[in-house]
Amino acid sequence: MLPFNTVEEAATFMGRNLTVAETLWFNYSAKKSDYYLYCHNILFLFLTFSVVPLPLVLVEMMRSLGFDKYKIQPKVNLSLSEMFQCYKDVMRMFVLVVGPLQLVSYPSIKMIGIRTGLPLPSLWEIVAQLTVYFMIEDYTNYWIHRFLHGKWGYEKIHWVHHEYTAPIGFAAPYAHWLEILILGIPSFLGPAIAPGHMITFWLWIAFRQIEAIETHSGYEFPWTPTRFIPFYGGADYHDYHHYVGGQSQSNFASVFTYCDYIYGTDKGYRYHKKVLKKLKEGSKIGGAENGSSYYYPTQDLKSE
């Protein structure tokens, strides 16, 4: 809740006129508690998981209209009812785990210093902090993900997420309840190390989930803007990890590829891409000629 009753009081405090964005923020947040503002995360998560995957559902239903060539595993077909079942399973976990966790985690947000007042952060400040958050989350998530592919971690927890060997957008948060709690730690570390404004925190939560949905989309579109982000993994990169499944010791990264490269856990994927390239240059085997199909020789798994 802002300690000002009017825009004029806020302007006097800051020694300048409020920007348009700050005026809008004042009008919306001045009389709302910090806890109420923080709980907006629940709404944003619900909207993100409900709305963002919908275009992917339409694409899956219209593959015969030319979208099939962008499908990474084109032999896999999911019905509308199967995709909706995945959504229901995710929403059940959201109601039982994610929502309550958001409600009780507010003290940690206050402790690390996420602010709700004025002035608002600049665009460059937001971009810089979001970049830091993605880097920190990516590095810590990498090691947790590797742990979850150990014998105990996979058999007890991570196998749930790998039920979808050909991932879809709705399956991005489809996981064991304990995995959801564990992977909340990397998401929290960035804001804890470099705390910013609540708006930046909202954006971080939304963008991270949108990124997860995109990498689980099952489609590699040539117009995807993330293709221009250096070291970004993307859908094809993560789809390989799901295809190999429990045997996979490759492509653990959640966002970027540098950890897999540095620690040598992308060798299977790079071997796989080399094989596909040779197949394209030579004879047309299976469906590999369209650039989207997978072809996995036995050596691929052994090379990991």
UniProtKB/TrEMBL annotation:
Compartment(s): Membrane
Transmembrane segments: 35-59
Gene Ontology biological process terms in this record: lipid biosynthetic process
Membrane in keyword set: yes
InterPro entries: Fatty_acid_hydroxylase, Sterol_Desaturase_Related
GO cellular component: membrane
Gene Ontology terms for molecular function: iron ion binding; monooxygenase activity
Pfam entry (one): FA_hydroxylase
Location (main, coarse): membrane
Keywords assigned: Membrane, Monooxygenase, Oxidoreductase, Transmembrane, Transmembrane helix
Domain Fatty acid hydroxylase stretches: 131-265
PANTHER family per UniProt: STEROL DESATURASE
Family that this chain belongs to: Belongs to the sterol desaturase family.
Protein name (Swiss-Prot/TrEMBL): Methylsterol monooxygenase 1-1
Species of the source: Hibiscus syriacus (Rose of Sharon)
